[in-house]
From TrEMBL:
Name of the protein in its database record: VanW family protein
Domain of life of the source: Bacteria
PANTHER family assigned: EXPORTED PROTEIN (PTHR35788:SF1), EXPORTED PROTEIN-RELATED (PTHR35788)
YoaR-like putative peptidoglycan binding domain: residues covered: 244-362
Source organism (scientific name): Salinispora tropica (strain ATCC BAA-916 / DSM 44818 / JCM 13857 / NBRC 105044 / CNB-440)
Key word Membrane present: yes
Membrane-traversing stretches: 54-77
Keywords: Membrane, Transmembrane, Transmembrane helix
The keyword Amino-acid biosynthesis appears for this protein: no
Alphabetical list of Pfam families matching this protein: PG_binding_4, VanW
Amino acid sequence: MTVTLYGDKVPPADDRPTVQVTAVQWPVEEAEKPTKRGGKWSFPPGGKWSRRTWLLAAGVTTAVLASAVGIGAYAYAGDVPRGTTVLGTELSGYSQAAAVEELRAAVERQAAELNAPLPVVVGDNTAELVPAEVGLRVDVEATVAAAMQVEAHVFERLVGSRTVPPVVTVDVDQLDAALKKVLGDDGRTMTMPAITWSGLTPKATHPKPSLELDPERSAQAVREGWLSGEPVTVPLAQIHPVTTAEEVDQMVAELARPAVAAPVTLTTDQGSMSIPPAAIAKSLVFTADDAGALSAKVDVEKLRTALGDDLAKVEVTPKNARMTLTDGKPKIIESRDGKKLDTSSLGEALLAVLPQSDDRRVTGTLTTAKPELTTEKLAGLGIREQVSTFTTQFSGGLSSPRSQNIITAAKDVDNTLVLPGETFSLNGHTGDRNYAKGYKDAPVILNGKLVPGVGGGVSQFTTTLFNATYYAGLEDVEHKPHSYYFSRYPAVIESTIFYPELDFKFRNNTEYGLLIDTSYTSNKITVSIWSTKIWDKVKTEYGPRKNITKPKTVHLEPGPNCIAASGSDGFSQSAYRVFYKDGKEVKREKFSWRYAAEPRFICGPKPS
């Protein structure tokens, strides 16, 4: 056999080193072969295997092996085996650092070709990607490392050459975003299995597979096909939901329909009640996870909502501690524990009996339900003395609609407890003040004039409450004075209200609880705040009235909606809330307002 070795660069023909090895074979009979005894070889006398012959054979073998070792050393001189090319660039015999430098230079020389638009096919759509925009590049260091790896026999390297494909990297996220634009609307999201309710009828939604890109498979296809010179076909993955259409239909037949076929009896140690099919339908929920596995559960909170007041048959509502004033002193009405269904296992227990046609019973456990405000907590809130009080007067007696509205609001707010840090909203507390709640039609200001409106007069109660909290030193959160000045109210520090746009809010910015106490006579409304006193006193200092304007006379069409008014001056003014502690002023707050001049409304035509 003849083996020819070549160096890094192709040398002239007559310069190529050649080693020729001729294989020989000696036919030897078994008896003539030398033997080894005691570590020494012995040769049969007169035999063909003389010591000289044996040494000659050994010498030939050693020469062959030495030649092979020399050939191997020559073939693997440097870090990169000889005969290795990458991207058309020979790296034979280079050190690793030199190979990296050589390959990097080759990549730079081929930059235009490597950055040429890459045609891709995604579904039925074709497009061209700019390699740099998706992070597609040759990893030079990794490619050289791959070229240094030797996997074949040395002699296969000596008689030929090898081409090492470059190691290609790509930004998977950028590539996926670009390919999604190519795919466009041709993709398909997974239709999840579902069971919904139309009254007591379950409606099945059968699943459908998605047709979408798989980012890792897309990246692999682009890496492998980038330098092939051919368009790269990006595969699409069809992903099926775990639950099949047949399984959805089975769940409808074996669970959903039987679930609402009859009521379920819930038994507790407090009594029993029936859970009707309508409540079951509202609480039996079917959901699919991300893989499309459909499951069912009873949402106990939805069940509680659906049962509503019926739960009172087995539950006892806890009662908060309350406070009232008795003989001019705060008195606590103790709290009371309640009984509430333990929901931790109720849902699973109910789900277990819903497929059954008979013996539809579950047992519920009642646990102690503590009130939000216990007697002990209320006792520790420090409500012990009156810290402020304010009174305004009204006319017409208790029989007038306006007076009735004032008293209705006062009764609603009486004995209201405001905890430390809590914000009180008058609109939030009373809700819409309408006829159903006992409010009457009385004059309100609307679009600059007095007109009949439900709840008229509640602004007087609002002003009284605002002043009580103002002189208690509590934080003003929201209030708005009237458009016109009314002499029955203190200027600037007064408030109107209109549901839901205009509200009055204050915050209990103390560490103590506070109790709102309301009282009334036939011509007065009083609001008092009970808590622990923080300030020695709070008083108001007024600035002068400025920018005074006179009212105009306006004639209105007579009728039930026309309310006459004598008019009032307009002006601007500031009021200062001054806080005193230990006999000294410690802070002051400024309140300013501009009143418009209220026209003199006359119900009748203008005199000619």
